[in-house]
Amino acid sequence: MTDLVRNSRPDDASLDWLAFRYVSGEMTDGEVEVFETQLAADSESFSLAACEAVAQAVQLCNMAVVAFDSEHKVMSEPVADLSASQKFTGQRESTARRVSIAASAAAVVAAGLILSSSDPERIDEVVSRETSPLPAGQLELASELVSFWANSDDELDFRFDEHPLLPAGEVPDTRTDDVPDWLFAAIQSQQSAGDESTRPEVMEN
Amino acid sequence: MSAPSVPNADDGDRVEPDAVAGLYRQHAGEIRAFLTGVLRDRELADEVLQIVFRRMLEKGHTATDNVRSWLFKVAWHEALLVRRVQTRRAGGLEKVASQRGFSVEIPEQSERSAVRQETVEQVQRAIDQLSPEQKAVVRKRIYEEKKFVVIAEELGVPLGTVLTRMRTALQKLQQTLGRYFED
């Protein structure tokens, strides 16, 4: 805050700028105290202009927020289903990570099934080749999946929610054999999102 | 602190309901905005707004020349009363929380007033007329509610540069949108 005061030029004492800083919470306690003397009904420094400036600052912020909101909704329409429930980059990124894990694991499992009856020692080699772009953590998961299939006749009973490599509490829909909606939507989202990283950056023209 | 004096109901200085309604239509918007700026809480601002005009209806007003000024003064007085209660409650809550070893953050409610579509479009056009640097600062400060210090760090520019961009952008927006601030 002291930087804010120090960096303010003398003519920044204009009411509009002060009012904006006031409603934005960008004033020091001392500045607030001084400014509010212009708002106080029983103060000798009462200024109708200051009250009006506060009101206008709030109204301007309201309109700007609605305008940015409106812009955001237009930009996010192509990803409608996903954007409604996953507004934040963090959630999109974790879902995309799960998708990449699941998709890569599926590819590795398919390769592993072919090799399971042949040379188990080649499994790691296949995993390494098929999943080479994956980070080490996902590689470990994929390798574990393939090993499980190769070494067991039991139906796969891998519970994602118990695996330490996946975010806690994020359990994919395993009720049917169809690709779950979240996965399908996440794949579509991943394909359409591209290099999108943060919400604000997406909004820039 | 005493409220601006109001005449006794028997004095016959009451304002007729239709007149109060007219004044409400004319001034409620900016009084509400003023209260929101002071209280940082839209719901509280709405409640206090009702108190202000209810007082006018029940007891009249003592404005000698400028009713608008009277409205702002009453609004400030009522807002101060509410803020004192808020402070006491928040202080009590934080005290209890600290005793139990966790922190309590009193959230500020974001403001989303009803804005006509036409106004939204005008505002969007006005924002688009800003330079990219100014628009970025406006978006980060107003929409993303980031402090100026944080914005300066994110953009890798001095704090003074951010402040200048914001101030310039505000001037442009107010010049362009000035008439939309009228009730």
Describe this structure in a few short sentences:
The complex is a heterodimer of chains A (205) and B (183). Chain A has 205 residues and is mainly alpha-helical.
Residues in helices of chain B, as a percent range? 55-70%
Q: Identify the biggest protein-protein contact and residues per side.
A: A-B, 44 and 59 residues
How many DSSP E strands of chain B? Answer: 0
Total strands of chain A: the figure is: 0
Number of helices of chain B: 7
Low-confidence stretches of chain B: 1-12, 104-113
> Ranges of chain A with pLDDT <50 over ≥5 residues?
80-93, 152-180, 201-205
- What distance lies between the first and last C-alpha atoms of chain A, to the nearest angstrom? 32 Å
Q: Could you please describe the fold and organization of this structure?
A:
The complex is a heterodimer of chains A (205) and B (183). Helices cover 62% and strands 0% of the residues of chain A. Chain A is mainly α. In chain A, helix 6 runs parallel beside helix 8 (136-151). The longest helix of chain A has 29 residues, at 48-76. Chain A is elongated. Residues 80-93, 152-180 and 201-205 of chain A have low confidence and may be disordered. Mean pLDDT of chain B is 80; it is low at 1-12 and 104-113. With 183 residues, chain B is mainly alpha-helical. The longest helix of chain B is centred in the middle third of the chain and has 33 residues, at 67-99. Chain B starts with 16 loop residues before the first helix and ends in a 6-residue tail after the last helix. In chain B, helix 1 packs across helix 3, helix 2 (42-59) crosses helix 3 and helix 5 crosses helix 7. Chain B contains seven helices and no strands. Chain B is flat and about 60 Å long. The interface between A and B is large, with 44 and 59 residues.
